[in-house]
Design goal:
This protein is of the alpha+beta class. The chain contains 2 helices and 6 strands, in the order βββαβαββ. Strands 1-2-3-6-4-5 form a 6-stranded mixed β-sheet, covered by helices on one side. Helix 1 runs parallel beside helix 2. The longest helix has 19 residues.
Length: 124
Amino acid sequence: MKRTVSTSKAPAAIGPYNQAIEAGNTLYIAGQLGIDPVTGKLAEGIVEQTLQCLKNLGAILEAAGYKYSDVVKSTCLLKEITDFKAMNEVYSTIYTDSFPARVTYAVKDLPMGALVEIDAIAAK
């Protein structure tokens, strides 16, 4: 069974996709930018954007009945690979143990001029 998950505590999708889809006991969360869901504006700087991305992921996890500890895989997209260390430092404040598998790529551009985008897969 497939269920669409959405919450106003995370930014609405900026394209033809959902914030998340749950299939069985697995939650697939779309890539989140560092957009404040209240203002609709992108946070300034890599540290702030990374934190907001992770807050947005957390809001979606919570709306679906999951926790950060349920995340088994994430993908981090960076506009600049030189931001890897700063992104990683923020990431490690959210995922403090039982780390998910992860891949990080540097990409040419991200939507809205974002510096980072993070998605996640969670399982129960």
